[in-house]
Design brief:
Layout lengths: L1 E7 L4 H13 L4 E8 L2 H14 L2 E5 L10 H12 L6 E6 L2 E8 L2 E6 L3 H7 L2 H10 L13
Parallel strand pairs: 1-2, 1-3, 3-6
Antiparallel strand pairs: 4-5, 5-6
Helix pairs in contact: 1-4
């Protein structure tokens, strides 16, 4: 299975990329591409492109901006225009930082902060197994909303 990494207005790209790759190796997922964007429009285009080729897209950065470029604001717009609801999204927490997992049918978007330690923590074995099980015949592992 393939996944993409998209950096959005982030600075610690190399460190975060290493943490994501190490985590996804545990579940035998391979990286397809790594890209970056600096505008919400470009990010939207890249997410759409990635979802044509991969079922998992990891977005890193942009969660702590104080304007309309904030990734949470961008994701809210995407959700409202696509008909997704809060039932499709779960919050991920680590050391007072938030990330998100958005699932729609067999596709997953992970939005993670630009913090290597938080990325590593949020990509827990439980979350990785949940993602892996989406693409297997086993659906017995449920991802907890309390993470």
């Amino acid at each position: 299975m393939k996944y993409d990494i998209l950096f959005y207005l982030s600075k610690k790209t190399g460190y975060c990329e290493k943490r994501v790759k190490k985590a996804f190796e545990k579940i035998d997922f391979d990286i397809r591409t790594v890209n970056s964007s600096v505008t919400p429009v470009n990010l939207g285009e890249q997410v759409c492109d990635s979802l044509k080729y991969c079922n998992v897209v990891v977005i890193i950065g942009g969660l702590y901006l104080n304007d309309d470029d904030n990734l949470s604001v961008v994701l809210s717009r995407v959700m409202s225009s696509s008909g997704l609801t809060l039932s499709n999204m779960r919050k991920l927490n680590c050391d007072n930082q938030n990330g998100y997992i958005i699932r729609y049918k067999n596709q997953v978007i992970l939005a993670l902060p630009d913090n290597p330690k938080a990325v590593e923590s949020m990509l827990s074995d439980e979350l990785l197994n949940y993602i892996k099980n989406i693409y297997s015949d086993k659906q017995d592992l449920k991802y907890s909303e309390n993470n």
